[in-house]
Amino acid sequence: MTHYQTMWQHIRRSPYQAMAAILIMMLTFLAVSVFAILIIGSTKVITYFESKPQVTAFFKDTAHQTDIDSLKNDLLATGKISSVKFVSKQEALTIYRQQNKSDPLLLDLVTADILPASLDISATNIADLGDLSTYLKNSPAVQEVVYQQDVVSSLTKWTNAVRIIGIVLIALLAIVSIFIMSIIISIKISHKKDEIEIMQLIGATKWYISMPFLFEGVFYGVVGAFIGWLFTSITLFASTPLLESFLRGIPVLPVPWYFYVGLLGAELLFAIVLGVFSSLLAVLRYVKQ
Fold first, then answer.
1. Confidence check: pLDDT of 77 > 80
2. Exposure string (b/e) for 208-233, b if CB count within 10 Å is 16 or more?
3. Contact 50/152 with Cβ under 8 angstroms?
4. Does 187 score more than 90 pLDDT?
5. What is the SS3 assignment for 247?
6. Which H helix or E strand runs over 6?
7. Same domain as 169, residue 130
8. 8-28 average pLDDT score
9. Structural domain of 178
10. Are residues 103 and 222 in the same domain?
11. How far is CA 16 from CA 12, 132, 279, 288, in A?
């Protein structure tokens, strides 16, 4: 009888234990999938906001073009600016009309004269936003300064918190999975104690006896990981239209197919490691030679 046949025999003889092992592995990799998607998605959101104009300076109606050009050149000379773009009153009206094209009433009420010209500025380093904002506010040509440092900072803190919580939760679930799977396989080994002793008497090596149990641990890990990945992937795919409307144009969704494939590959590799390690804990304890 091959190792694979022996493994299937173990599983068929104790289906409830097998289901328990698969369930705990599924929960572990469900958490892995969810937190991986959250972390990668939030990182993309941060990158999106960082790529957008981070400081907008709105000019007074009395500001002259020479004052605006002078301020623009001074900003570029600081070395803290990655890009700066002047938006005229007419361009501001075009942007306003594009953003409110579904509401004709708002379009009729606004003309180019009442919209301010502005500078859209992106900093090389997010940490410089505060200094740039202060510098712009001190300019006599500037009426108002708006910058999104709070948005990016909040997103960064949220992402870091999710990462820490995810790592802790996944580590705890992985430990519980190892513990439960090790107990299940230990029970199976103890039930075959007489059979193992006979195999050792006729010359079977420790690793030959252990291989079916190692394969069994890998089986539980791989099946549990696949179910957890499949459930998360289907849920994410089904909820993509709703999430896209919530994110309002932020290019996070739809998730490309290669992300799903890469996530599955990483989880299967992790599952094999967990399965082998769990089985080894039981095997090294009960199978001695």
1. yes
2. ebbbbbbbbbbbbbbbbbbbbbbebb
3. yes
4. no
5. helix
6. helix 3-13
7. no
8. 82
9. 3-49+153-286
10. no
11. 9, 64, 18, 27
